[in-house]
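Structure ticket #2291
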Amino acid sequence: MKKILFVAHCLLNTASKVAREPKDGAKQEEELRIAFLKKALDRGVQLIQLPCPEFTLYGACRWGHVYEQFDSAFFRSHSRRILAPIILELQEYLSHSEKFEVLGIIGIDGSPSCGVSYTCRGEWGGELGGRSDLQGIISTVRLVESAGVFIEVLQQLLVEAEIDLPLIGLFAPERERVLSILDFP
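Resolution: structure written out below.
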């Protein structure tokens, strides 16, 4: 039986991520990403890449965003549209349980779109140039316990399709929990 895992786009393609300065957390995240992928490949898990809503909407030259910027009817509609074929694919795999076992879905915690347990929030928006309060605005950005917008839409679609699967966020402090989805006989 083939084991299948649906994964956030940037788990397989980090080129789609917003460019950022390397920080301590980025190194831990990359180490966990590599450990996760190695374990998945070693266990023979088939990885299915979710689309990246940020890249498909804004492209490669975008700035970092926060949840509040994506929390719009437009972004949610875009997310629903690009997730529609994923739901159909999930339904097809799940309808052949004698051949396939769908283990779950992996998101990227901290992402304003693909966070599962944690997302990035803040009072963000407006023109950057000429702002005297830019540092104050940047200081409002914080990691909070909640899902990102894309994951919220995915959760809603899963409920509508009556699909119940584990949804786990890749988050370095929860390394063992993240890797545990790959612990099977």
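Closing remark: The chain has one domain: 2-180.
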